[in-house]
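Appendix B, example 12.
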Amino acid sequence: MQIRKTYKNVNPELLYDEIKDFILKQGAIIDEANLETYSMASDSSSFISRGTLTFKIQGEPGKAEEECLRAHIVGSAKSETKVMLDINEGLFPQEKVSALQEDLDFIFSLYEVQPH
């Protein structure tokens, strides 16, 4: 399952941190967390950020942890920030997905750009 959202005037670092906290709240474990910031070619005082978060969940006893969710965040606080969540529904069930979406909507719904 994939969830895509676009936000206007949201700091990508804030969104990155909130997504990380919301997913941890659902019992996932951070596997990788990368956040990079780049200056814009047209304006060196403006920046674009790129974040990637991967999460694992403990499988059955004795089995290795498996990746359950990957989040990609790219954007600028001055314009739009896009989020793409790739979710393995077999490991991160629908009730956890719904709780994650409710948390995101509660905090960021005012900033969400609705598809046309």
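The first helix runs from residue 12 to 25. The beta strands are 2-8, 29-39, 47-57, 66-75, 80-87.
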